[in-house]
Amino acid sequence: MESLISTIKQLISFSAEEETIIKNLFTELNLKPGEYLLRDGQVCKHVAFINKGLVRYFINNDGDERTMFFNKEGEFVCNYISFLPQVPSDKNIQALEATRLYVISYEKLQRFYREVAEGEKFGRVAIEQVFLSAIQQLDSLYTDPPEVRYQQFLNHYPDLTQRIPQYHIASYVGIKPQSLSRIRKRIFS
């Protein structure tokens, strides 16, 4: 849990008593490769911090999966569009490898906001980071060619290329795996 506490400390300051409160609000959850933190149609019940492992955030469009994001160690993952209003999700969050998470429910997050002096600041700063990332991703999807999107993937996730199957990376970039192979050949030759 120390990596969770360290990450929160990068966003806000808190006392030793507040640290105990924070630790008691989060619970550990372990996912096996292929298991879901969230499935399309379910209400997102938790914000999760990835202590170890890797997940992908994707939509299923008539059997065609489109990967939107990857989250790895030291990052928070949640479908806020489902979590905040507590409505069914149209997204999936799936573990790509054995993943250890610390999760906090909607109700406990509200306690975090009330009981930790800078709790609401934490919520604001965390959601601002998610919002910026989502807007940058959306802008890139509409304005950048696939080769640029792949290069951005390499820049943003340099340590993940060996941990993520190529067909998921192709989906993230917005192309077929064969096209990704051609792009990789051009970049690395």
UniProtKB/TrEMBL annotation:
PROSITE patterns: CNMP_BINDING_3 (PS50042). Signal peptide: none annotated. InterPro entries: cNMP-bd_dom, cNMP-bd_dom_sf, RmlC-like_jellyroll. Residues 10-112 form the Cyclic nucleotide-binding domain. This is CRP-like cAMP-binding protein. It comes from Mucilaginibacter lappiensis.
